[in-house]
Design brief:
Layout: E1 8-9, E2 31-35, H1 43-54, E3 59-62, E4 74-76, H2 88-91, H3 95-100, E5 105-106, E6 109-114, E7 130-135, H4 140-143, H5 157-169, E8 176-179, H6 182-192, E9 196-198, H7 205-209, H8 213-216, E10 222-228, H9 235-245, E11 249-254, H10 258-267, E12 272-276, H11 280-289, E13 290-295, H12 303-310, E14 315-318, H13 323-326, E15 333-336, H14 341-345, H15 356-363, H16 368-383
Parallel strand pairs: 1-5, 2-3, 2-6, 3-4, 6-7, 7-8, 8-9, 10-11, 10-13, 11-12, 13-14, 14-15
Helix pairs in contact: 12-15
C-alpha cells in the first residue's frame, strides 16, 4: 500500500482498553502484525490468528489473501492488485520490495509471522520501532530447497544466492526472533547468524480431544494421511506404506497431486478413500477413527501430528525435524530413520503397545494457553 506523501506515525487510540491477554508492554503502543500471503487452512495462518488475538488493536498486513480465504480485517499489499497473486513462485523475487513499500505508516512495534520474507518488512526506524519476528521457517525454496524440491533447479542457483543476500541484509533491523521449533532455531542460527527463542505453535488440543461419543467409539480400522497433496509431503510414500501394512488408507486434504494420487489408488493393493477438503469436524472424526497417522515428511514443526495425538491417535513418521519435538518415540508413536515403506509398515503391529491416555496427555503441552503465555513473556522481554 502506498500511503501519503509523508510518513504517518500511528498512535494507539486514546483510552483504548485492550483485553487483559494483551501483553502489558503493548498497551498504548501502536502495533503492526504482518504475515506472508494468507491461505484458507494453513498452519501458519492459525498461528497468525493466535498472535492477532493477543494484540486485537494491531493493524494486520498481508501480501494478499487467497481467493478461498475469508479472513476479515486484513490489509493487502499492492501485489494483491496484480496477476502475481496467483503465483507464489513468480511473486517471490518481488516480495522483499513489496515488504519495503508496504505502507508509509510507522508503528511502535511490528510483529511479523514469517516463512518467506515477511521479516524484512520495515514500518519504522530501528531507533523508534521494535521489530519482533516469529519464524515458521527461513524460506525453504531460498535456503534449503533440498527439503522439498522447490527452488532446487540448477538454473535457480544464482537467483537463490542473490535472494539469500537480500534476505539477510534486509532483516538486519529485526530486534528479536522466535522460532516455531528447535529445528527452525538451528536454521536461523545457520543462515542468518541470529539467536532465537523457541515457542512451539498453538494447537486447539482441547477441541480435538473433546469429540462426541460417536466419534470416540469408532473402531480405528484404517491408516490416515492428512495434509496438502504436494510432492514434498510424500503422499506417494504413504500409499506405499499402506500397501506394505496391508491395511486400508484414508487420504484427507487437497492439492495439485490429486490426479496422480488417484491413479496410484486405482492400482493399489489396499482400499484407498479420499476425503477432499474435510471441514474441521470431519477431520476430527477421521483422526478418532484412525489406527495411526502416517507422517513420513521432514517438517519444520507439524501441527497435524499434534492434532492427531490430541485424539489419542499415534503417529508413525520420520525421525527428523519437528516430529522430534512433537512425538515421543515408543510412547506416542514411532519415529523411523528411513523413507523405506517397509520400515514404516514394520512398526504398525507395535501400535498396541501404546497408551491412548499417554498420547492424549502429551498433546496438551501444545495448547493455545501455553502459546499465549510464552509469546507474552517473549514480547514483554523484548519490548521493555
Amino acid at each position: 500500500m502506498s500511503g501519503a506523501a509523508a510518513p504517518i506515525h500511528r498512535q494507539a487510540a486514546p483510552g483504548a482498553q485492550p483485553p487483559a491477554a494483551t501483553p502489558a508492554v503493548l498497551v498504548g503502543r501502536s502495533v503492526a502484525l504482518v504475515h506472508e500471503w494468507f491461505g484458507a487452512t494453513g498452519g501458519s495462518e492459525q498461528v497468525f490468528r493466535q498472535i492477532a488475538d493477543l494484540v486485537p488493536h494491531g493493524e494486520r498486513f498481508v501480501l494478499w489473501q487467497d481467493r478461498d480465504a475469508t479472513e476479515p480485517g486484513l490489509r493487502e499489499s499492492w501485489l494483491a492488485r496484480t496477476p502475481l497473486r496467483r503465483s507464489k513462485a513468480a511473486a517471490l523475487p518481488l516480495m522483499p520490495l513489496v515488504w519495503r513499500t508496504l505502507s508509509r505508516e510507522r508503528f511502535d512495534v511490528v510483529i511479523s509471522s514469517s516463512h518467506a520474507f515477511a521479516h524484512t518488512v520495515k514500518l519504522g526506524s530501528p531507533e523508534t520501532t521494535t521489530h519482533l519476528s516469529y519464524v515458521h521457517a527461513p524460506a525453504r525454496y531460498v535456503w534449503s530447497p533440498a527439503f522439498d524440491g522447490r527452488g532446487s533447479n540448477p538454473l535457480l542457483r544464482v537467483p537463490r544466492r542473490l535472494l539469500q543476500s537480500i534476505d539477510t541484509r534486509l532483516s538486519a533491523h529485526v530486534h528479536g526472533y522466535a522460532a516455531n521449533s528447535r529445528e527452525v532455531q538451528a536454521r536461523i542460527r545457520q543462515y542468518w547468524q541470529r539467536d532465537a527463542v523457541v515457542i512451539n505453535p498453538p494447537v486447539d488440543v482441547d477441541w480435538f480431544a473433546a469429540a462426541p461419543a460417536s466419534d470416540r467409539a469408532q473402531a480405528r480400522e484404517y491408516l490416515l494421511g492428512v495434509g496438502r497433496w504436494i510432492p514434498y509431503k510424500n503422499f506417494d510414500l504413504i500409499v506405499a506404506i499402506a500397501e506394505e501394512a496391508r491395511l486400508p488408507l484414508v487420504l484427507a486434504g487437497s492439492g495439485p497431486q490429486e490426479p496422480q494420487l488417484r491413479r496410484l489408488a486405482e492400482r493399489a493393493a489396499v482400499p484407498i478413500t479420499f476425503e477432499v477438503r474435510p471441514d474441521r469436524k470431519r477431520l476430527r472424526q477421521l483422526y478418532w477413527g484412525a489406527r495411526v497417522l502416517l507422517f513420513p515428511v521432514h517438517e519444520d514443526f507439524g501441527i497435524i501430528p499434534v492434532e492427531a495425538q490430541a485424539c489419542g491417535t499415534p503417529v508413525i513418521g520420520l525421525s527428523r525435524g519437528g516430529l522430534l519435538e512433537t512425538v515421543v518415540d515408543g510412547e506416542t508413536g514411532f519415529l523411523v530413520g528411513s523413507t523405506e515403506p517397509a520400515d514404516h509398515a514394520s512398526v504398525v503391529p507395535r501400535l498396541g503397545e501404546l497408551s491412548t491416555e499417554r498420547i492424549t496427555a502429551h498433546a496438551t503441552a501444545f495448547s493455545p494457553t501455553r502459546f499465549a503465555a510464552e509469546m507474552t513473556a517473549w514480547i514483554d522481554n523484548e519490548c521493555r
